[in-house]
Design a protein that fits this description.
Structural class: alpha/beta
Largest sheet: 6 strands, parallel
Strand order of the largest sheet: 2-1-3-4-5-11
CATH superfamily of the largest domain: Response regulator
Low-confidence stretches: 10-24
CATH topology of the largest domain: Rossmann fold
CATH class of the largest domain: Alpha Beta
Helix content: 40-55%
CATH architecture of the largest domain: 3-Layer(aba) Sandwich
Bound molecules: beta-D-galactofuranose, zinc ion
Number of strands: 12
């Protein structure tokens, strides 16, 4: 066998070292290693919120980000205090999910004056000064409301006569409540038979949904449809409807948003009729943005989360592998 030429040996050696074939190349430290992130979370009001918090914590661990996550009690003051604590601690980046849209300019200006970049996640702020945050990562809530409306228009396409709808809204003043309501109203205008006869704030909780629905059932003799702004309110409404001796999903149709495990299970069992997804698993995308923001790389002003919607068959199909 001819000796391999010297050139051939050099080439092979070069290739080996180039692809690290020589020494054992251990796991590289993630780009975000050591970055200090302060995160102010709304609260623990719903399954969605708990899954969102878990996603952020797991993603921070995986990325080597030092996370200081503070869960508020659903009050804006608590979140403002948390953000001020992050500023005092001189964290590298601040991120938060604002419980309501307005009232953030002052504390965001303080973060800007301290030279700390801010990432808004999940719910939007309605500030006029867009320099107060670098990017917004979250769902398109108006699209979620439209999807709920589109299902209803389709469901009642061949039905003539009034369809009486009650709406259990999310936290007053929050972006998801404002935008889901707007998207839903915009779409159902297409069919004048679809009439929202009442709407009230259920604060995104099961207890809130149950109380509001019980009130609607006392005040209205003919309720055909419930549009609840999240699964937890819808599941509370199911309890109130059953307590009133009616069959949820049959006598009263129910549409919700989030697509949590409990919501999809109720849909699979026929107690809900349609569930629009609002994806809480923002953690990995958030850590990617944190790394870019810290190193001064350009990031888009708006990063929209991918999500879909489920009918009964689709719910049965995804339930076995559902992460939250
Ligand atoms: C939506 C999120 C909402 C969820 C609710 O992104 O802000 O808040 O739909 C949660 O379940 O309480
Ligand atoms: Zn009716």
């Amino acid at each position: 066998m001819r000796r391999p030429s010297t050139l051939l040996v050099l080439v092979i050696t070069g290739l080996l070292t180039a692809c690290g074939g020589g020494e054992e190349s251990g796991p590289r430290a993630p780009a975000q290693g050591g970055i200090r992130l302060g995160f102010s979370q709304v609260g623990a009001e719903s399954a969605w919120r708990l899954a969102n918090t878990t996603s952020i914590e797991h993603a921070a661990t995986n990325a080597g980000v030092q996370l200081d996550l503070r869960v508020a009690d659903g009050k804006q003051d608590s979140q403002t205090n948390a953000i001020r604590a992050f500023i005092d601690a001189k964290v590298d980046v601040i991120a938060f999910s604002p419980v309501v849209e307005s009232g953030w300019d002052k504390v965001l200006q303080e973060a800007k004056d301290a030279g700390i970049p801010v990432i808004v996640t999940d719910r939007m702020v309605d500030t006029t000064d867009t320099s107060l945050f670098v990017t917004m990562l979250g769902s398109d809530f108006t699209a979620e409301g439209r999807k709920a409306g589109e299902w209803l228009v389709e469901h009642y396409r061949d039905f003539n006569g009034p369809v009486h709808i009650v709406e259990i809204e999310g936290t007053t003043g929050s972006a998801p409540a404002n935008q889901r309501r707007a998207g839903f109203a915009e779409v159902i205008k297409a069919d004048t038979d679809l009439q929202v006869i009442d709407s009230r704030d259920g604060d995104f909780t099961r207890a809130g949904g149950e109380q509001v629905m019980a009130g609607f059932l006392r005040e209205h003799t003919d309720i055909d449809v419930v549009f609840a702004h999240n699964d937890d309110e819808g599941l509370g409404a199911v309890k109130a409807i059953e307590a009133a001796g009616k069959r949820p999903g049959q006598d009263v149709k129910i549409i919700t948003v989030d697509a949590s495990r409990d919501g999809l299970s109720a849909l699979a069992e026929g107690r809900l009729n349609y569930v629009v997804e609002c994806n809480p698993l923002l953690g990995p995308q958030l850590m990617e943005l944190v790394g870019k923001v810290k190193t001064g790389q350009a990031v888009p002003r708006r990063v929209v989360v991918d999500e879909t919607a489920f009918d009964r068959e689709a719910a049965k199909a995804v339930l076995p592998n559902r992460q939250y």
